[in-house]
Each structure stands twice: as structure tokens, then as C-alpha cells.
Amino acid sequence: MKLLHTADWHIGRRLHGFDLTAEQQNAYAQIEQIAQEEQVDGMIIAGDLYDRRLPAETSVAMVDSMLQQLNLTDQIPIYAISGNHDSATRLATGTPWFKATHLYLHTDLSQAFQPVELSDTQLFLCPYFEPFDAQQYFSDDSLQHLDQAFERVVVEMKQHFDPTKKHVLVAHFFAAGSSTTDSETNLTVGGLAAVPTDLLTDFDYVALGHLHGKEALQSPTIRYSGSPVKFSLSEANQEKGVWIVDTAYDPVRLTFKPITPIHDVQQVTSSFAELMNPDDNDTVDHEDYVGITLTDKQPIPNVMARLRDVFPRIVTLGRTDGFETQVRYHGESSKQIRQKSPMDLLDDFYEKVAKESLSPQQEKWAKAALKVAREEGNQA
């Protein structure tokens, strides 16, 4: 079987206020083209289709359109899971009839133990889960950490191994020994642990999502596909793309297929004069998203406006002495912000501070607090 491995689409994501819809549509079109050119037997999407658990209507429409094009028009089987940024409940809508078109979208831990049977391969689709989910499934309160829970999950999966087939795991987590960027959630926060890679050695291939760089983990059979789009300046040097996984070989054969962005992401360190002189900065595409660090020691009048005339997609501005200028981004207008619900505003704020969306439990607490606030306001 030849499979395309992708993950972390994060539809709805913005880069320092800049809308990335065109970038994401461009990356998707290239993924679709690669899948057709390679004549893959299916596409793996290892979580985080959305950027947040409460996606905007435009994001929902975009994901729906992408999946329909791939699955119904192109007739490519899809093997997808929910990630930590997704709402498992929202993604699960429609799954009872998805399998009729070979669209497998697993959003609950219990589904991880029902392998998708292909001609020579078993696919185990394990959605993002927390230790509490494993405690409930196994009725075992001793599973306090993710590594403990995942060890139990793997033992259960191996009970369903067909010895005549290859075994592929699709999952979304932080694997021990991986490197991260500042746009990714750190799963070691809050008592959660990384999953040791030695738990995964019985699988012929492990298709991971969560970390945005394909080089985050160096293993011949355990790989992150990385995100198809650069979502932060710390990803500037990463090569984006997808893996083609061929299970007909032993070990499985991996081929990386790159994706070319419309506008790249760059980190630039230079003097103001050099940046403003086209002859001195021909290595920088002025249409790219750029983070600029100035080497100048003296203050420069109206520096941001002058730089933005040359670099319209400037996302950060700092100096080598550590001083950083607050950039006013071309993001949402004040009118758009005022039209947002309190929950959307809270989710936006939390994500900026914590680099992740609210968890389902946090959403419940927030909604309960807002309900109390409204009731007290009505009584005042």
C-alpha cells in the first residue's frame, strides 16, 4: 500500500494577525496533486485539521470542501484522527456514514482498537487523548500520565495484530526525544509526559502529528510529517511537505515530497539602511512574512511605517540589543473583535498566552463562569 502522510493543517490559523487562508489553500492543492501523481492508495491526516476547538464557520467550510474534494471527487480513501487543537465532538459529526466512502475519522480512544483493514496493512487510528480518557476506557485510575496510558493502549492494540500484515499507527502526541518550535503545544506541561519511542517499535510505521517540523524526530519508522504551512518565525528554516509511505517494502520505504509556499517566512538581521536599499537585500523577498532584527544602536523615526512600505508582511521588529518594538498587525479590525462572542475572545486570548486552545474541561469552566456572570448582571 502506498500512503500519503500529512498532519497539522491548522485551518483557521493566523501568523501574527495575517490571514493564512491563501497559503493553506495553496498547500492543500499541492498535497492533492502529490497524492494524484503518486497514485496513493490513501491519505493519512494525523490530527489538528483545525486550529482551535471552536473553529469559525469559514474554517469549517474550508475543511469540509477539502475532504469532500479528496474523498468524493478524487476518490482517495482518508484515514484521519482528531488532534489536541480539534474538537473531537465536532469532527465526529457524520462519521456513521463516512466509512461508506472510505473516509475514516477517529475521534474517540475506543476507536483506536478497531484497525482499518487494508490488503497488506492494518491501520490503527489513535486520536489525541488525555490520561483521563484512558482511565475511563480501561477502568484504571492508576494511569495518571500519558506514557503510562499509551503503554496500555499499545498492549491492547497488539492484541488485534494480524501477523500476515504490516501495522501502521496514526497518532498525535509528543514523542520522547523530539524537538519543538514555539508554535507547538508542549505536552510536558500540566503533568502530561512524552511518549517513549520504544513503546512503538512493534509498528512497521508510526505516522505522527503535533510537531510542525519533519526533522523533529529522527527515526526510520517513526516520523512527523510536519505542518504543510509555516506558522511561526521559529519554523522559518523548516522544509514543509508530506511523506509517501510504501508498505510493500520491508522496512517501509519513505519518500519526502516538498511543498512550495506562496510567501515564505524569514528571519532577517540587518541595519535599517541595508534593508531600505534594494541593492543590499536582494536575498530577502519583500513579499515574504519577515521578522526583522535591526542592528542599529540609534532610534529611527517612524521606523515601522517606513519598513512596512518595503516589507508589507513584517510580523515582528526587534533590535540586537534585546529591545523589541510592538508591531501593530494587519489582523482583525476592532469591529470584528467586538462582534465576537465572549468564548471566542477568551479562546483567542488563552491561545496567545498559552500557545494552545482551551481544553474541553476549561471550556466547561469558562461557560459556567460566563453563565454566572450573565445571571448576576441581569439581577443587578
Automatic annotation (TrEMBL):
Please list the GO terms describing molecular function.
Answer: exonuclease activity
Asked if the keyword Hydrolase belongs to this entry, the reply reads yes
Q: Residue ranges of the Calcineurin-like phosphoesterase domain?
A: 1-213
* Classification via Gene3D superfamilies: 3.60.21.10
Judging by the UniProt lineage, the source's domain of life is Bacteria
Please provide the record's keywords in A-Z order. DNA recombination, DNA replication, Endonuclease, Exonuclease, Hydrolase, Nuclease
Give start and end of each Nuclease SbcCD subunit D C-terminal domain: 263-353
Q: Does the keyword Lyase apply?
A: no
Summary of the function given for this chain in its UniProt record:
SbcCD cleaves DNA hairpin structures. These structures can inhibit DNA replication and are intermediates in certain DNA recombination reactions. The complex acts as a 3'->5' double strand exonuclease that can open hairpins. It also has a 5' single-strand endonuclease activity.
Summary of subunit composition and partner proteins: Heterodimer of SbcC and SbcD.
Belongs to which family? Belongs to the SbcD family.
| Protein name per Swiss-Prot or TrEMBL | Nuclease SbcCD subunit D
Organism of provenance:
Secundilactobacillus angelensis
Tell me the gene name: sbcD
